[in-house]
Structures are given as C-alpha cells and as structure tokens.
Write a structure and sequence with these properties.
There is one protein chain. The protein is an all-alpha fold. It has one domain. Helices cover 69% and strands 2% of the residues. It contains 13 helices and 2 strands. A hairpin with a 2-residue loop joins strand 1 and strand 2. Helix 4 packs antiparallel against helix 5 and helix 6 packs antiparallel against helix 11. It starts with 8 loop residues before the first helix and ends with a helix.
Amino acid sequence: MARTLRSDQWLFWAALALVTMSSAMVVNASLRGVDAVFAKSALRQVGVLSVGLVAMFIAMRTDYHRLRQPAVIWSLLGLAVVGLLAVYLFKDRNGASRWIAVGSFTLQPSEIAKLAAIVFAAAVLERRMHRVNDVAYTLLPIGLVTGILALLVVFEPDLGTAIAIVAFVGTMTIAAGLHWRHVLISFLASLPLMAFFILLKPYRYDRMMSFLGLGAPDPDVVRQITQSLIALGSGGPFGIGFGNSNQKAFFLAEAHNDFIFAIVGEELGLIGTTLILACFAFIAWRGLRAALLAPDRFGTLMGIGLTMMVAMQAFINISVVTHMAPTKGIPLPLVSAGGSSLVVSLVAIGILLNISQQASPAAAASVDTP
C-alpha cells in the first residue's frame, strides 16, 4: 500500500463549507413562521448533519481497500436490494414507495444502492480491466447488477435516480477503457427503454412535454418551475437577505429539499448561487485529482464514480431548478434536506479523502507541478 499522507485539506474544507452554508439555508427554508412541524424538520436536519459528519470522519480514517473485500461488496449489494424491496412494506408518500420509516427514523435505500453499484463496478473493473470490452466477461456482470438495482429504483418509482446510477457506473466503465462502439450501442439501446419508462407513468410524460413546450402544459409542473424562476430572478445580484424568502412561504413546494438552490438564489442572489456552483466545481476537481493520484485502479475507478455521484447529481438538480432539464426528484448533494442523501454524500467525501491520503509524494508532485 502507498505511503499514507495527509488527506486533501482543500477537498475537506470545501465540503465542510458547503454543508455548513447549506444547512443554514435548509433550516432557514424549513422554518416557515412558527409552525412546529417545520421547526422539527429544521432540528432533524441538524441531527442528520451531525451523523453525516461522524460517518465522513469514519470513512476518512478507514482504508478504502477494505471496500473491495467480497464480504463488504456483497453485504452492500444485499443491503441495497433488501432495502429496495422492503420499501413496499411501508406507507407510500405522494404515490412513491422510496422510504423505510420507523417512527421519526427514515432511510432511503436508493442512496445505498448508489454506493453499492459504484463499489461493485470498481472492484470488477479492477480485476477485469485488461478485458474491459469483453461483453460476457466484464460488461455483462456489471450491467446485470447495475440493471437490477436501477430497475428496483425505477419501480419505486424514481426514474431520475435510476438513470443517475447507470450514469455513474457508465462513466467508470468508460474511464476503464470501454470502446466507444460499446458506448454508442448502449446509448442507442437505452433510448427505447427510456421512452418506455417515460410513457409508463403519465406524470413523466407530462413533465417531458411541459419541458419541451409541446401539448397542454402540466399545471403542477409549470407552477413549480415558475415559482423557482421567480425566486432566482427576484434575488438579483445580492439577494433579498438571509431569511427573507417569499417563495418558501408555501409558494415553492420542496423549498428545503429539491429546490433549495432557488431559495439560495432568492436570499443570497447571484453571489450565493455562484458560490454553490464554485464549491461543486472545486469538489469535482479535487475528487478527480484524488482519483488520478490513487495508488491502484480500484481507488482510481471508485474515486471517479464517487466524484461523479456528487457532481453529476448537482448538475442535474441545478439544471432542473433553472429549467434546463425536465423536472426530476433528485436532491442537491450536500445541500438539500434529507437524511440518507446527506449521509451517503458525506461518506463519499470521506472515502475520497482516504484515497487522497494514499497518493505517493512523487505522483502528487507531478500533478501539482505546472
């Protein structure tokens, strides 16, 4: 194993600054007047953040090579599959069965599925990278496991997260040397499947048509996006002030969750949203740097997958909030309210920090030298 160095301090402080700023925004967006329900939601966010930070420190201090042990990989996959099946035993929320809820404790198994898919793909690709374009030997096992996880997530239903899982693993496979012919074939083959799942649920079709401006617009989708754009536009360069949002007062649904970026724009203006974007760009850079400097292929590929998990979800969420993509229920990593998403994102940062600890001094110097 490579010599252990200090973890990437820049990555650590960028992630910490983002979750600190975002937690203040989530608590602020949750406190609508003196409603006890929203006050409880704000307090819960503080508790979740504490758990997430502890999990990040544990991941940062745990040798990432332990994750490639078969017992760990299959335990993660088993936990994800059991969790994705167990959600149907609990009461659905707005027609979706995505959570395991016991009292005030909730768990979203699809977040565990993201981590399980990335770890599994990295382990398989490391061992079979010399035959990465062999369909039966390499691509089929990865595709089968990723496909099962994605299908279980789709039927919750959560098409956005299922697409994200496939995209994470696909990016890792491309980085491992997948031939562009296979990439093109896979993309073309996925189009009919995507169309099927969009048509399977009327609300997905309505969202797509509303985004494209075709047919009769979905009133709920139009209202949500309109309120989001109003929030972003009314903030101007400097915002209307922390805590002064008008849209969080029941105009913009999910203001503290999927659309928290709009509240940042309203209260902190262009400066606030630019800081959020800069933090994500910086985390993506430092995450990919850590992956590049990893002492082995497993660390490199897993680092790429974890970085994409954070950066790609951020890109999708912000694209939805700014009406650059159809509406999807994907939270903004490290920023949106929500226990499972925040904790898993912080665990991903912790693993990246551990990977960065194990870079060789020579490799780090070669990358940092202009």
